[in-house]
Design brief:
Elements (H helix, E strand, L loop, with lengths): L14 H15 L6 E2 L11 H14 L15 H12 L11 E4 L2 H7 L10 E5 L3 H9 L6 E2 L4 E2 L3 E4 L17 E5 L11 H14 L2 E5 L25 E6 L1 H4 L7 E4 L5 E2 L2 E2 H12 L5 H9 L3 H27 L4 E3 L5 E5 L6 H12 L1 E2 L1 E2 L10 E5 L7 H11 L3
Helix pairs in contact: 2-9, 3-9, 4-5, 10-12, 11-12
The structure holds D-malate (MLT).
Length: 406
């Protein structure tokens, strides 16, 4: 018997597990101390009434012989896939069809599982800093090479530095990458890519025969009409891009679990349909998202669902504005948080990002996310999430200012 040796190469634990461990240990040493979390991007507002009403109705249906459902259709129920097509794509003039949509239990699983359909020998490019799931899942699959603890980088990955000099948006590299992970609005920097920038990436991918793995989990936070919500707003992208979407941040489904992946029928390589491959992978390893949850997700697209989730997103946008203002008043340089729920800040006085994390936890009782956890270019930065409890965000910012002596 042999184990997957790639796991032995993985450094430490998953970023948010490490943060949870440090917070739990601090809390047990300081019982009674109120901790405010602006760390992991987990929502705090409850599901909206349109969603819970639809889910309650679906629960009742499941308890009646006439309306009970067993296994669902392998790509998800048509009622949800059609609602997605109409609202997320047709409404923006995009010709994605219900056949291209695969309902899942969330974008994290799909971003991680998509590596199954690609050969181990592909060259993978990731932003630095980056959502760790893209890197770790490739490392587990043996596609990342060796980890160098000195540089914090894997030998076979191509890193695209996202730094203040390029406004945290990477330009396509000179060399060829086969698979490129892009996330806009970005986690962790909150940067957004313009139509022109995304067009450069689509042109690059078409020229090199590469595939863009586009994570659009945070698109609901875009208010600027010039920022694309979907990679499929860019002509030609249906031949080179897979897109991941999530109800987690859009509609508060972090605990409920629902997302979807778009693999366009037009996406082919070496005479093979990637849509057919993903269908084969999902129908073999996944038995679908619960009917009750899919009914809840469908309700997000009703007029009342839309106005209720929009109201929640406005509350989180208000959090983002308060966080930006609080950090600026504390004398820090910040970016993001405008068309995105994440605020990216330089650390005070060039402190290391884990030291800043520890300082803010200890002195302010506020959980943040250290930039270095997202990659070497995240060093000297930390991330704040706008998904915190809106009643506590003003207090968190006051505590941070005091802890930083401003
Ligand atoms: C984050 O905080 O980066 C996200 O919540 C992680 C996730 O969505 O899995």
């Amino acid at each position: 018997m042999k184990l997957n040796e790639n796991f032995a190469k993985m450094p430490g634990s998953y970023l948010f597990s490490e943060i949870a461990r440090r917070v739990a240990s601090f809390s047990s040493e300081h019982p009674g101390r109120e901790i405010i979390s602006l760390g992991i991007g987990d929502v705090t507002l409850p599901l909206v009434p349109a969603v819970t009403k639809a889910m309650a109705k679906a629960v009742a249906e499941m308890g009646e012989a006439a309306t009970f459902r067993g296994y669902g259709p392998e790509q998800g129920y048509a009622f949800l896939r059609n609602a997605i097509v109409e609202h997320d794509f047709a409404a923006r003039g995009i010709s994605i069809t219900a056949d291209d949509i695969f309902i899942s239990d969330g974008a994290k699983s799909d971003c991680g599982n998509i590596v199954d359909i690609f050969d181990v020998d592909n060259k993978v490019a990731v932003c630095d800093p980056v959502y760790p799931v893209y890197v770790d899942t490739n490392a587990m699959a043996g596609r990342a090479g060796e980890y160098d603890p000195k540089t914090g980088r894997w030998s076979n990955l191509m890193y695209l530095p996202c730094v203040k000099e390029n406004d945290f948006i990477p330009a396509p590299p000179q060399e060829k990458a086969d698979l490129i992970y892009l996330c806009f609005p970005n986690n962790p920097t909150g940067a957004t890519a313009t139509r022109e920038q995304l067009t450069e990436w689509v042109d690059y991918a078409l020229y090199h025969d590469s595939i863009l793995l586009f994570d659009a989990a945070y698109e609901a936070f875009i208010t600027d009409p010039n920022i694309p919500h979907s990679i499929y707003e860019i002509p030609g992208s249906e031949h080179c891009a897979i897109e991941f979407r999530s109800f987690s941040k859009t509609a508060g489904f972090t605990g409920t679990r629902c997302g979807y992946t778009v693999v366009p029928t037009a996406l082919e390589r070496h005479g093979q349909s990637l849509r057919a491959m993903w269908n084969r992978r999902q129908s073999t390893k996944f038995n679908g998202t619960a009917y009750i949850v899919q009914r809840g997700a469908e309700a997000v697209y009703t007029p009342e669902g839309q106005s209720q989730i929009r109201a929640n997103i406005e509350i989180y946008r208000g959090n983002a504005a308060l966080i930006r203002q609080g950090l600026e008043e504390a004398g820090l340089k910040v970016s993001g948080g405008e068309n995105a729920p994440y605020i990216w800040s330089e650390t005070p006085n060039g402190m290391s990002s884990w030291d800043t994390f520890d300082l803010l936890l200890r002195e302010a009782g506020v959980v943040t996310t250290p930039g270095a956890g997202f990659g070497p270019c995240g060093e000297s930065y930390f991330r704040l999430s706008a998904f915190g409890d809106p009643k506590k965000v003003p207090q968190a910012m006051t505590r941070i200012r005091i802890a930083l002596g401003r």
